[in-house]
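== Sequence, structure tokens ==
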Amino acid sequence: MSISENLHVIKDRLPAGVKLVAVSKFHPVEAIRIAYEAGQHIFGESRMQEISQKYPLLPQDIEWHFIGHLQTNKVKSIIPYTHTIHSVDSWKLLSEIEKYASRIGKRIRCLLEIYIAQEDAKYGLSFDECRQLLAGEQWREFNFAYIGGVMGMASNVEDENQIRKEFKSLKLFFDEIKNDYFSDNNDFCEISMGMSGDYKIAIEEGSTMIRVGSSIFGDREY
């Protein structure tokens, strides 16, 4: 099937309130333009060099999400292009986003990346590390880097019960910190979980935002 056909198949299955981030990393500008013309306006990239090359060549109303691991020394470069950063995994990184976003007067939605997988290779805060970050309350003073939700990646396994359990743990944690820190804050509303292989389970467990690449664009072009 074509990119536009793939998109419509996925979008037709999405419940109301679940957003689709089309993961366009390693895919060419032409492929993104086809998806855009088919009605997809949210795209996810994971490398600063790639998003800076694509940004000027594509429509300016695209909502760019940064979904990869983000080093603090790259923050300054991606801020001008980025609407949402899914991978905030430290206080230091959140502070850097605030610093550079404030310089250009741009609000950036930040999702706290939570480590939910039973694998060593994933980044993210543990539940306790995230509780400690929020308990410090300093984030409340930020005007530009605002916490808009959480993100997590399940283990890359065949066991659907394990995947479901991991997604369920993130939804429960979201509910906990929503109640404790964001009960009166409508900005804190997103649970970014679910990719091409597991997004159906993620939606069943409460995801509000799925990140899908290969099911839309096919295999990556490295």
Summary: The longest strand covers residues 145-151. Strands lie at 19-23, 42-45, 63-66, 84-88, 108-113, 145-151, 190-192, 209-212.
